[in-house]
């Protein structure tokens, strides 16, 4: 199985500075990760600390901030982990799914969902 990458641009809210890179799409990660120096450079400030489990099973605490996330013509916002300086940028599943995208397991490419799921109850309360 191959690796899937997608071009992503991050921006701090209200800032013109941005960080653009090819992010590894990791459907096993909830949050996205970027080297801390890049987040600070574009004005993203830490707003909290959380515990994250790494692929090797080790748990570490990392700061996270909030940023605008743009990919494939879609925009969302989400938590971005202040990662180590040598880390590859990672796009987590929360950001991916929040703009209605998934990884196609056959082609290993990112594609739009046919329709975004809503619960029947939500539809009844709107009507």
Question: Can you characterise this structure?
Answer:
This protein has helices spanning 36-41, 93-98, 120-126; strands at residues 5-11, 18-26, 32-35, 46-53, 59-71, 74-83, 90-92, 101-104, 109-112. The protein is mainly beta. The chain has one domain: Cathepsin D, subunit A, domain 1. Strands 1, 2, 3, 4, 5, 6 and 7 form a seven-stranded mixed β-sheet that branches. A two-stranded antiparallel ribbon has the order 8-9. The longest helix has 7 residues, at 120-126. The mean pLDDT is 88.
CATH class: Mainly Beta
CATH architecture, please? Beta Barrel
Helix content: 10-25%
Quaternary status: single chain
The tally of helices reads 3
The third-level CATH topology is: Cathepsin D, subunit A, domain 1
Helix/strand order, N-terminal first? EEEHEEEEHEEH
User: What's the shape?
Assistant: globular
Briefly characterize the structure:
With 127 residues, the protein is mostly beta strands.
Task: Please render the helix and strand layout as text.
Elements: E1 5-11, E2 18-26, E3 32-35, H1 36-41, E4 46-53, E5 59-71, E6 74-83, E7 90-92, H2 93-98, E8 101-104, E9 109-112, H3 120-126
Parallel strand pairs: 2-7, 3-6
Antiparallel strand pairs: 1-2, 1-5, 4-5, 5-6, 8-9
Structural descriptors:
single chain, 127 residues, mainly beta, Cathepsin D, subunit A, domain 1, seven-stranded mixed beta sheet, two-stranded antiparallel sheet, 3 helices
């Amino acid at each position: 199985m191959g690796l899937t990458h997608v071009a992503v641009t991050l921006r701090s809210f209200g800032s013109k500075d941005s960080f653009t890179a090819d992010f590894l799409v990791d459907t096993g990660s909830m949050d996205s990760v970027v080297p801390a120096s890049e987040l600070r450079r574009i004005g993203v400030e830490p707003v909290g600390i959380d515990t994250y489990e790494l692929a090797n099973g080790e748990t570490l605490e990392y700061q996270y901030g909030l940023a605008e996330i743009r990919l494939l013509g879609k925009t969302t916002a989400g938590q971005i982990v202040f990662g180590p300086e040598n880390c590859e940028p990672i796009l987590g599943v929360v950001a991916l799914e929040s703009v209605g995208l998934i990884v196609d397991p056959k082609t290993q490419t990112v594609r739009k969902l046919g329709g975004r799921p809503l619960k029947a109850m939500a539809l009844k309360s709107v009507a």
